[in-house]
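This part of the workshop introduces the protein records we will be handling. To make this concrete, we reproduce a full record directly below:
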Amino acid sequence: MTHHYPKWLYKAPKREHPVDDVKEPNLLRDMFPYTEVPRIEIEDTIVPMEPAEEIWITDTTFRDGQQSRPPYSVENIVKIYDLMHELGGPNGIIRQSEFFIYTEKDREAVEKCLAKGYEYPEVTSWIRANPKDFEIVKQMGLKETGMLTSISDYHIFLKFGKTRQQVIDDFMKVVESAAEAGLKAIRCHFEDITRADFWGCVVPFAERLMRFSEESGLYIKIRLCDTMGYGVPWSEAALPRGVPKMIYYLKKELGITSDRLEWHGHNDFHLVLANPVAAWLYGCSAANGSLFGIGERCGNPPLEGLAITYAELTGTTNGMNFHAITELANYFREMGVDIPNNYPFVGRDFNVTRAGIHADGCIKNEEIYNIFDTTKILNKPYGVAVTDKSGVAGIALWYNQYLGLEGEKAIDKKHPGVAEIYKWVMEQYDQKRTTAISPEELIELGKKHLGDYFK
């Protein structure tokens, strides 16, 4: 962590904000040396936390999520969309979902999701910065689309081979075409914003967009795309990596309202959930995510993680149905998706203990070692896996859960049959066993040593 403060990071220049049309790319080598790990610049200035009045979630499961895996079938998409509607509830906490529209299969999926008639999540699309694509959007009957507007010099100079002014002018022509096509709203996806010259390119482009929105009546949103996962959630962090300063200055310098800002992140540096939460807390209404974090490279903010965090921040589910999270995980497994066993909220072992001392605590009171009432909230009962670390307490807990025994009817860890099963378990590991005892084995052992309970 470094503590020097380049001048260009310090404070906002005065309005207006012309493009700093440099002739050579500014690749911010102080921060991004490439042959070394990137730098996080820490400043001695902070910006105040000003949460958005209303926050919500948007979805990219069918766009970014599909870019990282074999494509979903139409049937898969419709089923996931149904369950996502259940998860988000009637109040639009999961406000929108974006879809590809380029192939016949893409369009069939969109049509079938639209036919459901759900208010939420609203079906939107994603297109390239091509005016002709707006006709497809209009033909599909969609009110909003996202459009790729890459904003860093890495893309402007190294990919497009143009200058900042040329690229921004090109983007504006496409945005103008959206208004001419009769679209109600457009999202400009500021790709690679956390490696962009904030004051020299990001702010001037955002300013032109907001001015055009006011003149034309086209509702324009800005998706802040942390394409490479460089964003950090701390107020002291300098631009362009600091999420709080990015949100703060777009709002204060340009007057952009919270409802027009959306955060889209990636998990390359393990901050994929911290960053959208910071965006919410510093004034951005929308946080974009994908179910189970499935997205390009290291993935996107997990949609279900954003949903749980929403409830933590607001103190209410606001109509969301968290049982749908478990249903979605089960459906993804049916599709062959490998969800890690220790994955939060949905992994097979996320609320399973293997430690005897933990099991003993849960026999006394489940709350001691369970994050919340997972049975009530997620329809996922607390569990125990039997290994050489489980002890008699873990074994007793397993049987009580399997048999649904509670209170006075529960099997005590001091039961002689439990002792016999424990003895057998330990013999297995003395013989170099490396796997947990399977449910089938435990059932057979239970019938042998706890026969009265299995009648």
Q: What stands out?
A: Residues 354-454 form one domain. Residues 386 and 395 are 6 Å apart (CA to CA). Confidence is low (pLDDT under 50) at residues 1-13.
